[in-house]
Amino acid sequence: MLSQLSSLFFSKMNMVSTSDHASVVSMNMFVALLCGCIVIGHLLEENRWMNESITALLIGLSTGVVILLISGGKSSHLLVFSEDLFFIYLLPPIIFNAGFQVKKKQFFRNFITIIMFGALGTLVSFIIISLGAMAIFKKMDIGSLELGDYLAIGAIFAATDSVCTLQVLNQDETPLLYSLVFGEGVVNDATSVVLFNAIQNFDLTHIDHRIALQFGGNFLYLFFASTLLGAMTGLLSAYVIKKLYFGRHSTDREVALMMLMAYLSYMLAELFYLSGILTVFFCGIVMSHYTWHNVTESSRVTTKHAFATLSFVAEIFLFLYVGMDALDIEKWRFVSDSPGTSVAVSSILLGLLMVGRAAFVFPLSFLMNFSKKSHSEKVTFNQQASIVIWWAGLMRGAVSMALAYNQFTRSGHTQLRGNAIMITSTITVVLFSTMVFGLLTKPLILFLLPHPKHFTSASTVSDTGSPKSFSLPLLEGRQDSEGDLVNHDEETNHRPIARPGSLRMLLNAPTHTVHHYWRKFDDSFMRPVFGGRGFVPFVPGSPTEQSTAPLIERT
Amino acid sequence: MLSQLSSLFFSKMNMVSTSDHASVVSMNMFVALLCGCIVIGHLLEENRWMNESITALLIGLSTGVVILLISGGKSSHLLVFSEDLFFIYLLPPIIFNAGFQVKKKQFFRNFITIIMFGALGTLVSFIIISLGAMAIFKKMDIGSLELGDYLAIGAIFAATDSVCTLQVLNQDETPLLYSLVFGEGVVNDATSVVLFNAIQNFDLTHIDHRIALQFGGNFLYLFFASTLLGAMTGLLSAYVIKKLYFGRHSTDREVALMMLMAYLSYMLAELFYLSGILTVFFCGIVMSHYTWHNVTESSRVTTKHAFATLSFVAEIFLFLYVGMDALDIEKWRFVSDSPGTSVAVSSILLGLLMVGRAAFVFPLSFLMNFSKKSHSEKVTFNQQASIVIWWAGLMRGAVSMALAYNQFTRSGHTQLRGNAIMITSTITVVLFSTMVFGLLTKPLILFLLPHPKHFTSASTVSDTGSPKSFSLPLLEGRQDSEGDLVNHDEETNHRPIARPGSLRMLLNAPTHTVHHYWRKFDDSFMRPVFGGRGFVPFVPGSPTEQSTAPLIERT
Question: ipTM more than 0.90?
């Protein structure tokens, strides 16, 4: 059986058969469009409104229109959005690169805040959207939707796409905001997918306490097992590369091994029915913390940029694809009878996701604000920043599309009226939020945070008390992967002892304590075994790291 | 039609559906095996006999055996060798990287020699193998083979695989040999594929002068049009990157654009029914000559190593795949009745390809030798080196496999006895030549060229006369892409005026004259327009190139 299926798997890989000339044409078109997106995105870089995602989306839409006209409006499919293409080829490089390039110190210092926004917030969003959809849609004439469908709608529209916002925010000027939005985005992606899978796998016809508990347990298991698997794969790559020290002979071997191990971590997660997104994200973090320091300078430059490039291309590919796919006629056929219903459903969903997001962003921000005020700090962060955080999560993107296709095209090809409406509504919401909200992002942020420099300095000035450990690390703009070891001792000295009894400390003390012990453990055991900055075997004739650092930072 | 086929194309891309767990298993296995090949290949690097190709082949074979045992010997397919996978995904990065990393000066100085070995030699090989197979196989009991089949056999077994030899030869110690074997390998690949396509497209039932002329014209058209297309795409990428100068903003954009343009050149060639191999090879050459100099330092390091890594992984993937595929039971079923015939056919083919190669390597070497003797040079090159060149082309690899599958599995799945025998014979020849000849390569070269240093110096000492331009550039070990401009003026001064009347000059003078005028044209027109070393727009604050050069060379 294995061999038969693997033959299936390989026969499926033949994307373009040499005899199939039309698919060569479309492939050429697609690659040329990708090049066009890069060039146009570069030309529009200084533009106030545009960014690469919207450019790709618009180009995709226009191409779709052109093809629709050429084919005489007959073609039912322009490009079929394949969720497998998305989950197997496009998402892994994007998420891995996110983990690989994340400023680890920022991420881990804010770990609890990020998890609260990402996981708890997504749950709140999911519940509000599901309940709202259930309450409103049941009164409307949109075909038969079951409980599982409503829950799926909640998971689908809880998946945010913060790419637009991240392209505008400056990592050095507003590091706290950036790390929050970024971290929330990753955790949110993972949470939505895990939620979605849990919904599909559970029998939801009769819910009781036991099943709800099982559901929660399953969710936690997926979360921790996936994280662990990613960390293990990353450590394995670090250990192998450190032990064998490939660099003396071949940069290519090191780079190849890092790429393959990263992909292996994702595939292993799929193998064990875990969340590949979380796994590959933590694999990226571990690889940048250990493995990256064990390889030669050329390998470091290469991996840093090669991973970023793959992620960049995958993102453009994705938006181009979503843009072209939106014009698939067959999906719109069912809706064309009652355009009013479709617009209503889309508007309701847009409203729900705005409410669902506001329902956790502002309370959580208030909580953070309150905990800070209890230490008589004057932080300018909350008013504008919480609006930015709220805004950053309003866009919906490819994850929502992929999940919607998975849920609503399984039973027949959108033949059911309810399914067809949900698919078109998802497309509408994705297009509208990405284009309208996305276009407004840059002006909005420039309006809310007009002097980011001022903003940063305002907070830095205020660190007169002991909670420096909270305000400073969150707002400092230090290049993390470059300064991990150098600044290490200095910072451990500054770290205050946790004072119980304050809500702020309740939120942050565990992170800091864990972080402190982790540092000790890292220095005394992990780094000597797995390598990492300062623990790389000495290579005679190898130039110092400093010669490479400016080369990397310059981009 | 276009849209329907493009939907087909994208639906085919879903290699692994999330529900199809068994294909996830096989994909995990494959990625893990790739990692294993890299690690084991590294550990065996100092070994006298092994190299990465043979390691991958052996690991593939053993895995095949294990899977065969697990499935109880029932499975008819382990992994189906898909020629599309090979020609669309694996071959382009390998050939592009070959062009990108080739020492351009060496390659172009020896252009005529390389073309003679690569194109003329392949033709000779093709004719001898076709005629030999026709003469011998017709007397044997191996089913019905037509004229087209015999010609295809000639093209299939004229395609050499010089990877094994190139892994052993040292580019710096024996640059002439290396560039000859390397250049011949690329030209040979292209020639075989072009020949093969020409055979399949022509009606060969009644041959006359007109068709033979058409065939030749078609061949030449493919050759020049493909080259031109590759050069144009490369120049376009250079022009775009120079004009827009991405580097100030993003390394990722530059790297992405180079990768996409390279792939686009290959796909464009497919679109126009040209030879993608030749196109992507010349695109690589042009990109390394112009585009590579227009990008930032980080982009240079990244592209250099990223392309090499992709090529490296593709090669290992290929050998692993060939190893696993060799155990497909169905193909062997037809042959198992008469194992004697199969062994006989394989032996005859092996003999034919050895004779076919000897038939042009030794005469051509003699010609080169003769032309040199007429200038009273004492070159130690010919005796041993021509054996090495002959040996380097004895291995058959993935190109032969892919072509054989294309020819002999089209009409029913190897149901015809003749087809089945040809497929299994191809596998046997590929395995035998790669394993046995491949294993012997390292010892043979060490035996024939025991003191490569000595070999080089012997020739360098002899350059007392005017033909320095022939002996020195062929044997010098200069890193070409680093020193293109610096050594340029010095060398043009040294170049002698061609003396007519000698066979050697007849071979080499055109190359040099062309090379000379090309240089002038390059400096006065091409480089100012398309960039290239020394003609990159000045960037304030950008460090000099010298800071990167050691970083690149160190690997």
Answer: no
